[in-house]
Write a structure and sequence with these properties.
It is a single chain. By secondary structure, this protein is mainly beta. The protein contains no helices and 11 strands. Strands 2, 4, 5, 6, 9, 10 and 11 form a 7-stranded mixed β-sheet that branches.
């Protein structure tokens, strides 16, 4: 069973930066889209950013200009570069892959805490 393994979360001060990584433990064929979601305590999960196999990207309004998603669907790996972090960015961040056939995979989540 292929799993997604995330890393890079942690505690950072407001204004700081973190880089999240997500890699598959095995081969996943025909990835269509790779995404990052987050869920803060007491809130619904929200889509933060996504990148298609063709390189098209999407960002939630709340992170535009501060976060950058990148990745390689062939490996497959996805990254989320987070700059100018705010306290409201505190959440569990999870990666998500979906294939052209609709099969999907979730990471276990990594905690990001922005606090002074």
């Amino acid at each position: 069973q292929v799993q997604l393994v995330e890393s890079g979360g942690g505690l950072v001060q407001p204004g700081g930066s973190l880089r999240l990584s997500c890699a598959a433990s095995g081969t996943i064929f025909s990835i269509n889209t790779m995404r990052w979601y987050r869920q803060a305590p007491g809130k619904q999960r929200e889509l933060v950013a996504s990148i298609s196999s063709g390189g098209n990207t999407y960002y939630a309004d709340s992170v535009k200009g501060r976060f950058t998603i990148s990745g390689d669907s062939a490996k497959p790996t996805v990254y989320l570069e987070m700059n100018s972090l705010k306290s409201e960015d505190t959440a569990v961040y999870s990666c998500y892959f979906v294939t052209n056939r609709g099969r999907d995979y979730w990471g276990q989540g990594t905690q990001v805490t922005v606090s002074s």
